[in-house]
Amino acid sequence: MSIRTIQVHLGIGACLVALFLILYGIPNWVSSPSNVRKIILSPLFWPYTIAGLTGLVGLGLIVFGRGPDDDDAPVNEAIEDPRAGMIRLAAMALLMVVTFWALPRIGMVWAAMGAFAALAFLVKTRHPKIALTCAVLVPLVLYAFFAHVASVAIPQGNYVRLP
Amino acid sequence: MSLFDSIMAGLALVGNVNAFLSLAIGIVIGVIGGAIPGISATMAVALALPFTFPMQPINGILLLLGVYKGGIFGGSIPAILIKTPGTPASSATILDGHPMAERGEAGRALGMALWASCTADLISNLSLILFAGWLASFALNFGPPEFFALMLFSLTIIAGVSGDSLLRGALSALLGLMLATIGLDLVYGTSRFTFGDPSLMGGLNFIAVLIGLFAIPEVINMVWHPTGHIGKVQSLGNKWVTFAEYKRCFRSIVRGSFIGVFLGSIPGIGAAPAAFLSYSEARRKSPNKANFGKGEIEGVAASEAGNNGVAGATLIPLLALGVPGDVITAIIIGAFMVHGLQPGPMMFVMNVDIIYGLFIGLILSSGILFIVGGLAIRGFRPVADIPKRILMPCVLVLCIYGVFAVNNNIFDVGVMFVMGWVGFVMSRYHIPAAPFLIAFILGPLLEDNFRQAMLMSGGSPEILLRGPITWFFWALTIITVIAISRGTLNKARERG
Questions:
Q1: Do A149 and B47 touch (CB under 8 A)?
Q2: Which among A45, A41, A44, A35 is positioned nearest to B458, based on CA atoms?
Q3: Does A74 have pLDDT greater than 80?
Q4: How large a percentage of chain A has pLDDT more than 90?
Q5: Residue B420 has pLDDT above 60, yes or no
Q6: Taking 60 as the threshold, does the pLDDT of residue B454 lie above it?
Q7: pLDDT at B174 (0 to 100)
Q8: Are the CB atoms for B212 and B416 separated by under 8 Å?
Q9: Which residues of A touch B457 (CB under 8 A)?
Q10: Is the pLDDT of residue B365 over 80?
Q11: Distance (Å) from the C-alpha of residue A110 to the closest C-alpha of chain B?
Q12: Using one digit for the tens of pLDDT, what is the confidence trace for B334-360?
């Protein structure tokens, strides 16, 4: 993608977001008391102003992005296998969801150990033994510091509890 | 009591090993705390507070001030090495510090960060001593209209950190402003974009958004392109900052220090906006402005001078008026009270020895920070040598613990993950993250002060131009907007 294409895509996206917010998002998700005397004092005023400005900036991006361009060179560094990259990104998203879900259930230490090991595997580390050692040690050291020095109540989960 | 007597009384209080050690230990704790992403200077001060209860009042307060100053500098270490600001105040340091680290010049960047931090710290402390009363009385004249005008002017910083496209920078800022509206409305208490979830009622946690936006996209980028870093140097390097470079950046450092002093003396603004404003001003005035954002050492100097300039100045309203200048001084005010001291004008009469003892301790702290900071840079050298595919999982785990520890809230970890994806998409679409962050910080202040001003005037906008302070900031804003527009048009003409 060239920078002009990116600009146009962003502009269209910004206009759509602005329209969505003005027509649906703000009326439904921002509540305002009925007795507000002036619109500028209303909780709705600021979100509408920002949404309107987003629409204007979106239009600006489309207008400036549609002009002639001498440089159509792609701006993002290409990777060897984009399909594998997308699969890794999907796996990363899944890893985050699973970690978030597991934090209160199995505890932060065990969830963090799993997340560390899975991420090291996902980025194809060349030091698997060091990665596994770190996956165990780093969450434990952080637990020791936060729980025993900083007195933070680190979630322990329902199964194995640490001292 | 004459000035000489006061200084001697202060010296008698701090001229002992215990006071010196308290300050030094505080700085060491602060640098370590600031250097660990997610701990932050605020958290380090809060953690150290209970340890000061059994100490002499002056020693306890000096320890906390040491933690504060060390923490603000310490935040720059991970900001430069791993693009993760240890404290929000170091966000601006990333912009040029990390590109320098990627070029193998982390040592140079860290060295300049230390020199700029110590210089700004010294200037800030001297300003505290010289201008405490005067600056505090000026800040006392600020009401909501003045704050609104100041915030509006501060938002023009966005133009300076938007990179090569002002429109993409503006889009980023608007996204930040929109996300800052999430939570309960402060005037009417009605909900905005909370979807009935109590976790969203207080708004999005700033640390979660900050770490999500700056650290997690690095992890996701590594997943997208695991071998992308190979060939890119990331070490301290053999090149260290030279005195000639310090001299070249000196004007930006002094300017940034005074920006920090000015903003720090106004309660509620904090170090992060000061760092961005200092950075933006340095970029505006520098002959190397094209290099800003790509690893310009002057950018590191300016942002570090801005955030460290705040550290001494936030004590101006604290000591002179008993008003905390930011969250950290709000914690420190607790330490004063625990020791039976009430900061404010009467303290200058009743406890003048403590006031001057603190002043002397603060001057000493700049020198100690220079020594401790120098050692810390070398101590954190291994961080730069860790293989990136081991470091990134460490960063992920550290972020999870750090973000959770701020509020003991797992929801914040989720916010961080989501913001990480937002940051990743933004980086793929070349939308700069800095305007988002500035708008996210300034947005609520801007809106609250605007609405408070409108409530005061019954909806009449005339209040926004009510006096010389507002006129001054409106004039600055207009001049800046004209300069930005001219610059953008000139750039467009050059492109043909």
A1: yes
A2: A41
A3: no
A4: 53
A5: yes
A6: yes
A7: 92
A8: yes
A9: none
A10: yes
A11: 11
A12: 778 778 887 776 777 777 788 888 888
Closest residue of B to A15, CA-based? B171
Report the C-alpha gap between B297 and B315 in whole angstroms. Answer: 29
Q: Name the nearest CA neighbour of B412 among B395, B426, B399.
A: B399
Q: List the single residue in A with minimal CA-CA distance to B49.
A: A150
Contact B397 A46 (CB under 8 A): no
Q: Considering only CB atoms, which chain A residues are within 8 Å of B185?
A: 43
Instruction: Please state the ipTM of this predicted complex.
Output: 0.93
Distance from CA of B417 to the nearest CA of A (A): 7
Nearest by Cα to A61 from B171, B491, B175: B171
CB contacts of B417 in chain A (<8 Å) are: 96, 99-100
Closest listed residue to residue B24, CA positions, set B375, B365, B376:
B365
CB contact under 8 A, A64 and B191: no
pLDDT digits (tens, 9 = 90+) for B287-318: 887 888 888 888 889 998 998 888 888 887 77
Cα–Cα distances in angstroms (integers) from residue B269 to residues B16, B41, B155, B445, in the given order: 35, 16, 13, 9
How far apart are the C-alpha atoms of B391 and B414, rounded to whole Å? 21
Q: How far apart are CA B95 and CA B161, in angstroms?
A: 9
